[in-house]
Write a structure and sequence with these properties.
By secondary structure, the chain is mainly alpha-helical. The protein is built from 5 helices and no strands.
């Protein structure tokens, strides 16, 4: 959380859930419960991940738009 407050762009990821039996939901839960991320910090990691996705620019912009809070 300290690095996020200082402006570090970070994402939360998981390996293949069929291999590790850990889902992205599990990782989000851990980020909140163990690391103390709040909702805006969690949202920022999700938007950072969308902005870094290996997608063509129009698809990436659409994804970020869908995830950005209204």
């Amino acid at each position: 959380p300290m690095m996020l407050r200082q402006g570090l762009q970070a994402t939360i990821n998981t390996d293949d859930p069929t291999v590790s039996a850990i889902t992205l939901t599990d990782e989000y839960t851990t980020a909140v419960t163990a690391l103390g991320l709040d909702a805006p910090q969690l949202q920022a990691t999700i938007l950072t991940a969308a902005a870094a996705a290996f997608l063509p620019p129009p698809e990436k912009q659409a994804l970020v738009g869908r995830l950005r809070p209204a």
